[in-house]
Amino acid sequence: MKYYGLRNQGATCYLNSILQALFMTREFREAVKSCSKHHKDDINVQLNTLFESLKKKTSETTEVTKTLRIEKVYEQQDAGQYLEKILSDVSDEASEIFKGELIHRTVCDQCGSHTDDEVPFFFLSLPLMDSKNGNYSVEDGIQEFLKDVEFCGEDQMYCDECKYKCDTTVKYKLKLHPEILILLLKRFEYNYHRMSYSKDSRAVDVCYTIDLPENQTYELYALVEHFGSLTGGHYTAIIKSEDEDRWYEFNDSSVTLLSDHRIQRKFENFTVYHKLTSHSFYTRSRSAHLLFYRKKSK
Ligand SMILES: [Zn+2]
User: Fold this and answer.
1) CA–centroid distance, residue 113 to ligand 1 (Å)
2) Which residues fall inside 5 Å of ion ligand 1, going by CB?
3) Where is the USP domain positioned along the sequence (predicted)?
4) Radius of gyration over every alpha carbon of the chain, rounded to an integer in angstroms
5) 28 and 70 in contact (C-beta within 8 Å)?
6) What is the pTM of this model?
7) CA 81, CA 219: separation in Å to the nearest integer?
8) What is the pLDDT of residues 51-94, one digit of tens each?
9) Which of 14, 108, 225, 280 could tie 273 with a disulfide, CB 3.0–4.6 Å?
10) Collapsing DSSP states into helix, strand and coil, what is residue 244?
11) Which long-range contacts (CB under 8 A, 24 or more apart) does 85-90 make?
């Protein structure tokens, strides 16, 4: 299959990158197609029209930006924010593919009683930190995300059983593993000292295969990268084609098949490690921002 690009309307590379990742997610493309039959002029229809066009030619996103009420096409926006908007707007059938569920368990350290809150998510926002033992990886980020949080001292929480404020632990557990797991590396953070957003360009090891608790394995098939500064930067996407197991780079209207040599450059140590174990296939990246992983059947 030949792939086509999306024309940039000014600074809409953030949108183009996530649209290509969604287009290359077969389950999503099919869900949007079946839903667009029942609805008339909503986001499902616009996406389906765009996806049908993308199968044949370089395409325009003007109808999609209109539906998403993006007026300032010359202003760069946050890709994660618009991905969330699209997934919230499409039919449940289409968004379900990405929907996972976390349990937030609040445990009183005093009496041991607990309450559970179910929290649905479309993606997990992973904090970027310095790793104690060398390189920080996506798996470190997941561990950090799911780490117990203690509320002591001034942060104590009221316990319904004890009837007073106690030291409390909040535990996180994945209840529902989504078909497609999206991870967002938090590169854009508000800096309270500078009173503005800044970009964190530290290197992160993006593993090709990750294991989540409950013994669930996921495989990387798309990553959206952000290059350059916070406001004037550029987004592109690298996506693996499901039919042919080859990686393509989507950069607005241009789509390039990545040669082995370029994949090697993109994914550091690809050949060496890939031969040993697919687990160790990773890319050390300062630009990776959104990662799409597909659940592996057990
Ligand atoms: Zn208690």
Assistant:
1) 6
2) 108, 110-111, 159, 161-162
3) 4-296
4) 21
5) no
6) 0.90
7) 23
8) 999 999 999 999 999 999 998 988 888 899 999 999 999 999 99
9) 280
10) coil
11) 86/18, 86/22, 86/43, 86/47, 87/122, 88/122, 89/42, 89/43, 90/31, 90/32, 90/35, 90/43, 90/44, 90/47
**Ligand 1 geometric centre to CA of 159 (Å):** 5
Could you give the domains of the chain?
13-295 (3.90.70.10)
Look up tokens 């039959």; give the residue. 37
| CA-closest candidate to residue 74, choices 254, 231, 237 | 231
Q: What is the pLDDT of residue 275?
A: 38
Question: Between 117 and 200, whose confidence is greater?
Answer: 117
Q: What is the whole-number distance in angstroms between the Cα of residue 165 and the centre of ligand 1?
A: 8
H helices of 124-172, in order, are: 138-145
Q: Provide the pLDDT for residue 153.
A: 93
pLDDT in tens, 187-244: 988 777 777 888 888 888 888 888 888 889 999 999 999 998 877 789 999 999 988 8
